[in-house]
Amino acid sequence: MKPDIHPPTRTELALAFLAIAGLSALFLAPALFSSKVLLPADLLLSYTPWATRQQVVPQNANLSDSLQEFYPALWFFRNQVRSGHFPLWNPYVLCGTPFLADVVSAVLFPITWLALIVPVEAFFEWDAFLKLTLAGLGVYFFSRRFLQVRPLAAWCASVAYCFCGYSIYFLIFPDTRITMMLPWVLVALEEGFVNAKVRWRWIFSLLVALLLTAGHIESAVGALFFLLLYLAVRVFESGPRQMQGPPINVRKSLTPMLFHSVWGILLSSAALLPFYSYLQESATLESRTQLVNPFRISLLRLPAMLTPYFFGSPIFNPSHATVRQMEQCIFLGAIPLLLMFYGMSRSLNTRVPSLVMGLMFGFLIPFGIWPFFGLFTSLPFLRQGNHIHLIQIFQFCAVLLFGLGLERWSQAEPGLRILPAAFLVVQLAVLLWQWFVMDKFPFLVWQSRIPWYGVLALLFLFIFCTTQLKPRLAAPLLGLLLPGFGFLYGFYFNPATPGELLRAPDLMSAVRKEARIAGIGDGTLLPNMSAAMAVRDFRGYEPVVLARTQHFFDRLTGSRNDPQHSIHKVDQNTADVLRECGVEYIVSPTPLLISGWTEARASGAFLYQATGTVSRIDFNADTRKATADESLAALLSGKTRTAIYLESDQAPAAVRGSGSAQVVQETPDYRQYQTRASVPGYLLVREAYASGWGARVNGKRARLVPANYLFMAVTVPAGDSVVELSYRPWSWIIGLALTLLSLPVITGGIIFQGWKKPPRRAEIQENSPQRPNTA
């Protein structure tokens, strides 16, 4: 590599920003500059009650999480903040569930606040635009500043990163916020702990906090492991070679990195502590804790890195696929993988050993290589993680090595090489294998099970290999080929759909706002989507679920750990249990034969409403003391219609008396009720019981106890009473205090370049080891 490559100027970085932003805007133009949205809204037409008589096949059904989790959560957050409330509890899912503590909501991540300004359905394309632009610019800057490659090589690396499989597949998921920040955190690590710039150390702390609040804790933890590994290799590999600049050692580099990581964790405490507390009372730990973590990729899927083909096809049945669903995220491309090997030489850059170790980390864990995978997942917290997501670290290190390899290829002497020929043969073999497996479907048909862009990938690789005859053409050629191929791949997996499909179906107009509703059958109402219609969904699709809620659904439906909480069929007993849980409406794709419910409307589906009054609060003086199992059995058998089953150490008495309760005020985190009773009794609130709820009766603190297994109750005296419930978990209070205390420290460190005067450059040079005289 030539030594005359200069660092990037501000003008160059500005032009690079405009080029990457323009490319991102062009890619997202079908949604960004039209009424269409990046959400897979066409998926709704496959589910009741949106389904129509005409069968509609969604272009990419694999993106359903964005409709089941992210869109409803953003809608709820935006609606509550605009109403003057910062929500900690979500009453629209699973009879209520923690909201802030479910880190997928990512409400403390700054980009999420964009949803308060733009419409929620338009948020996803702007979020994707920022991800692509900032990720691409970060790779460009790191490649130019620290890898010291030429602008075209840095440009190719940034484009390869923006349009690799993980970035494209998870583009509208919170996971890719980690992808976006990885290059910038590495920049801060290099500047702060290798170049000893104090301000950058505090910027590193801020970025660590952003990683942890971005909405995907597993990816964030994996990124922190990678950063620690990267710097450790830099420290122990540099040794006596570090003759100029600040010293790189454990005391000067690694220890400060750990110190500032702790500050980043403290800054993110407002999100991390509630999440940790929520995890302790969830079903997630006990349901996923097993000897072998299932979230890894088989080594048989390795060909997917070369050719973007239909493993888990978005428009065909996954049973027709050659590789399982979701693993299309490992696609990187034959050309970046080819040149990655050319970049694996320390003579090109001193950072290569660290990048190679990161590459191995991002490969050994996602692919479950023994014994590394077992050691990494031995800790209880890491055992629960979906470690497939660490593939983004592999791709990040691979594209940086790709930039170095392209620079080396461009400077090489003309001549034929064996490695490109081997890559051509491998990719051709992969395509022929698919052709054989897929019963020889034609290649160049748009809806072929063998994607036409797989053939284009082979063609692009062949064209690139011809640059062996004139290597200087490699970088300009790739500068054109990579964006084009990225567009072909990305358009297919991230389609823009009409925004009007997100509107509530006609059937929902007959449902009373804030009523609790249950969908019968897989996909009915698409769990959580009713939150965007101000209707409380009895079911839910959440990554972390309260243990009581999960156990109830396991017993009610006969399934185990069903993430959709699907109610497959309804008999009379199930309908009565739903009513006891405060369900007022049932939506079913087929007619139901149940008494006590009347058909309210039929419009593509059947809507049933419970006869009489269904309330989410009740006064009852007849109580029973029960264990958790006895309370659950009573709820499922209908015994809770006449008595409240309390899990209390007190011995409630069965007395006769009358009373009433009504709602005075109700927000997600605060409830006020008015009771009138002839005798002392209990107010039953049909909201999921969780630690963090507190009660006051007539201004005095009262004790909340689990009631009827799922819900909570508080004792009230005879006469008129005012009952207040509020959700303020201690984990949130302590976490918020730690965040507020650490924020001015980190901010001050960034503004004032740390709290200790940094050493002058002359002192650094004086204390640095001197290069020996070899004359």
Q: In DSSP terms, counting alpha (H) and pi (I) runs of 4 or more, how many helices? A: 24
Termini Cα gap: 25 Å
Structural class: alpha+beta
Sheet-strand content, in percent, reads 5-15%
Stretches where pLDDT is under 50 for at least 5 consecutive residues are: 310-323, 440-444, 761-775
Q: Report the oligomer.
A: single chain
Globally, the shape reads globular
Give the overall average pLDDT: 86
How are the SSEs ordered, and which strands pair?
Blueprint: H1 10-32, E1 36-37, H2 65-82, E2 89-90, E3 97-98, H3 120-145, H4 151-162, H5 165-169, H6 175-194, H7 198-212, H8 217-238, H9 250-267, H10 269-280, H11 284-288, H12 334-342, H13 352-364, H14 372-376, H15 380-383, H16 391-410, H17 418-437, H18 452-465, H19 474-493, E4 497-498, E5 516-519, E6 536-537, H20 547-557, H21 572-580, E7 583-588, E8 597-602, E9 606-610, E10 617-620, E11 623-625, H22 628-637, E12 644-646, E13 659-666, E14 670-677, E15 681-685, E16 693-697, E17 700-702, E18 704-707, E19 711-716, E20 719-727, H23 730-751, H24 761-767
Parallel strand pairs: 5-6, 5-7, 11-12
Antiparallel strand pairs: 1-4, 2-3, 7-9, 8-9, 10-15, 13-14, 14-20, 15-19, 16-17, 16-20, 18-19
Helix pairs in contact: 1-3, 3-4, 3-6, 4-16, 4-19, 6-7, 6-8, 6-9, 7-9, 7-23, 8-9, 8-13, 9-23, 10-23, 12-16, 13-16, 17-18, 18-19
Short summary:
With 775 residues, the chain is of the alpha+beta class. Helices cover 44% and strands 11% of the residues. Helix 9 (250-267) crosses helix 23.
